[in-house]
Amino acid sequence: MTIRSRIVGTGSYLPERIVSNAELTKTVDTSDEWIIERSGIRQRHIAADDETTADIAYQSALRALEASGVGIADIDMIVLATATPDNTFPSTATKVQAMLGMEHGAAFDVQAVCSGFIYALAVADNFIKVGQAERVMVIGAETFSRILDWQDRTTCVLFGDGGGAVVLEKSEEGDGIFSTHLHSDGRHGNLLYVDGGPSTTQTVGHLRMSGREVFRHAVVNLAAVVDETLAANNFQRSDIDWLVPHQANLRILSGTARKLGLSEDQVVITVDRHANTSAASIPLALDEAVRDGRIQKGQLVLLEAMGGGFTWGAALVRW
Predict the structure, then answer these.
(1) Which of 25, 40, 125, 307 is deepest in the core (most CB within 10 A)?
(2) Same domain, yes or no, for 254 and 161?
(3) Is 120 in the same domain as 269?
(4) Alpha-carbon torsion 3, 100, 291, 265, what sign?
């Protein structure tokens, strides 16, 4: 008997405030054309002043629970991916646990920046496979607007805030997550990082990025991990129905699709409306494609991401 974890519900949440490229041009030395040409981004959502990562994660979790038909009493664990936690500690996951009224099980954060949701999904999937949990809530949530240098036009225009969640459940039916594949290479940490932290500057710091180098590594690493994931499960690139990638940059998405021989119609794209929401981007895109009916039962869905660290990974799912 093969035990897998199956996604039985998805949910997402975006802050109400939408900031267009045109609005950014009033405070940042940039233009709508410049942003679109380099990233494909037209707008992003920005959290309200009193809105936290935990708030965004909580709303995403509620929607995933509703979609799954599962009650919070049936959730054994919460794994929350974020690079923008509410506090150094406690974990944002435990705050969400309390907000959901969950007084049992375990809750903890995972930090792998833009690859965070894939890492969190892998952790949850393995807890289910070894029999230590039957249902796990996996969340990706970010308030990246809080760590942006709004004077740096090369980075501040690229990111947004939001959250997404899935409910994983033990399955013996043969569908679900076939495998997850995680990688990292710390030698490139200085190409995408935040220049602050408790043990270094004792401040939060701001995001810094060498965009051209990140782009070069991303296209190569993402194509490689996709092929690794397919080979591990005896599938071909042509077997993929949907690619749900981390929404970093439209050029990266297009480049990855070309490398894989996929049509852009097979790629779920939200970066134009959400910008880069780091660990939240995959569950946000996944929820959109599930709710609008693009992703159907029985289809093969591949999730992939790369983020600071560098970290990268992929997951293959039979929906």
Answers:
(1) 307
(2) no
(3) no
(4) negative
Verify that 166 and 268 share a domain, yes or no. no
For 50-73, write each residue's pLDDT tens digit. Answer: 999 999 999 999 999 999 999 999
Name the DSSP class of 293: T
Instruction: Note the pLDDT of residue 172.
Output: 87
| CA end-to-end span of the chain | 19
Instruction: Out of 114, 156, 181, 274, pick the active-site residue.
Output: 114
In the block, which residue shows the tokens 């740096």?
152
Is 246 tagged catalytic? yes
- Kindly report, residue by residue over 189-225, the tens digit of the pLDDT: 999 999 999 999 999 999 999 999 999 999 899 989 9
Q: Answer for the pair 249, 274: CB distance below 8 angstroms, yes or no.
A: no
pLDDT tens digits, 100-129: 999 999 999 999 999 999 999 999 999 999
Range of the domain at 311: 177-318
Q: What is the pLDDT of residues 261-292, one digit of tens each?
A: 999 899 999 999 999 999 999 999 999 999 99
Catalytic residue among 21, 221, 249, 276: 276
Domain boundary among 150, 174, 198: 174
Give me the catalytic one of 45, 181, 206, 246.
246
DSSP string of 129-162, one letter each residue: HTTS-SEEEEEEEEEGGGG--TT-TTTTTSB-EE
pTM of the prediction? 0.98
Residue 64 shares a structural domain with residue 80: yes
